[in-house]
Amino acid sequence: MNSMSNTQHSPHLEQDLTVFSSPAYSLASSMQVTPDAVGITLLNSGEYLGTLKVIEDIKEPGLIYDEYQLVSSRNMLAVTQARFIPDTTQIRPASMQGTIKPLQAERDYKIMIGEQAETLLLFKHADDHVTLSIEGKRVVVFSSTGLPVTLSDFNKIENLVIRVTANSIQLLKINDQTVHTQVYQLEYDFDQIMLEATELPYDLSNVFIQFGWANQLTNIPFLSAYFQARQGKFSFSRSNASHHAFMIAGLAYEPHTKLIADEVKQGFVIYCLYVDEKFTVILGDYGSMDNMTLMQDKPSLNPIVTFEITGKHSMNVYIDDKLLGSWESSHGLELPDFYQIIALDGLTELDFDLRNAYAAVGEERCKFDTASVKAYGPVHIYKNLSRPVCRVHYKPFDRQRLSFYSL
After folding, report:
1. Maximum alpha-carbon separation in the chain
2. Do β-strands 357-362 and 244-251 pair in parallel, antiparallel, or remain unpaired?
3. pLDDT of residue 172
4. Does the N-terminal or the C-terminal CB of the chain have fewer CB atoms within 10 Å?
5. Residues 243, 272: contact at Cβ < 8 Å?
6. How far is CA 33 from the centre of its chain?
């Protein structure tokens, strides 16, 4: 350890003390999974470069079938095991339509669907509604007050799972694959459900809508991980969904449990959404005007979003290595120590690259008693005073770009 060129004298240091600096060091960032995240793993990777993946191995419980009576119907009958079928005594129907009482709250329902061109399920209160539209290879969820979300790239849709409360619906699975979309909620409780199937085939033997339930039909493993970064760059790329979103919540402490979007009320937040050939990034102080929205049209099929910490209050955003924009806090909000990932819209895989991110970079400064120096030729040995005074001074990180690899 070499001494500094001059002796430091300051009010908080005793006389005859010299401040020495150790060689610069860096503490790399690494991805960690929260202890409660059962069913998630780091796939084919390390802690710095790899993929977070949800592993689904939970068996679905047996279904329970309630008996429903049709409040009104058109070319439709209710039969055993909550199964709604065409009334074959009528002239061949072009469609079948009916209304039933609301489903029970706090349950997960599996809805099985037969051969019809389109199936509509409208959860209503007066003129307000939450609607599921199932057609061919896609599902659209929307409400009278909320924008639609379209999920596609499936084979013929045969079943879906929804989570039901008294006044809200959340789509959890399509064809037994987790999608886990946002919650659609009305102000008042549902008072009726409309069922409709259109453009029925000539052969009506496999035309039906069926409801089965369990208290929790799908115990979804959740993507819950975090990392620490005070300097540098970190990158993400989705792996498994054409329509996906994720949030990154800033925390001052190391998290130990999962975090859901509804629990985020304040602080620094990053929100990323890729839908309709647009990549949107919103970042800044949650719930205030101290944030910004960045958008890029028609990015690559699997865009890489990179965040660069440029100061205590500022950050750059890149899409596929191109600068999209810069955010700087307008009222001095400091960037957090920890970042926790919250996956939305069915995201079960997320690539990450933390090789250019650092939890700390700097030097350790310690004070020594120069009055107790013993000389041995040209070599000086210094007696360390009790506990060193350690301070971290952040230095510019290595800006050499390292490629992000799709796994």
Report:
1. 111
2. unpaired
3. 85
4. N
5. no
6. 14
Sequence-distant (6+) residues with CB within 8 A of 190 are 102, 103, 123, 124, 125, 166, 167
* Tally: H helices and E strands in the chain: 0, 34
Nearest by Cα to 174 from 114, 238, 112: 112
| 359-400 confidence digits (pLDDT tens) | 876 644 444 444 444 433 333 333 333 334 333 333 333 333
Instruction: Return phi, psi of residue 121, to 5°.
Output: -125, 115
- Whole-model pTM: value is 0.55
Range scoring the smallest mean pLDDT among 96-105, 318-327, 361-370? 361-370
Residues contacting 280, CB < 8 A, separation 6+? 271, 272, 273, 274, 293, 294, 295
Main-chain dihedrals φ then ψ at residue 348, nearest 5 degrees: -115, -5
> What is the spatial distance between Cα 212 and Cα 159, in angstroms, rounded to a whole number?
11
**Tokens found for residue 2:** 């070499």
Q: Which of the pair, 92 or 351, is modelled with greater confidence?
A: 351
The token duo for 404 is 């992000």
Q: Are 183 and 168 in contact (CB under 8 A)?
A: yes
Distance, CA of 355 to CA of 342 (rounded, Å): 21
**Bridge partners for 149 per DSSP:** 141
Please state the φ and ψ torsions of residue 361, each to the nearest 5 degrees: -140, 130
* Residue 352 binned pLDDT confidence (cut-offs 50, 70, 90): very high
| Average pLDDT of the residues in 56-71 | 82
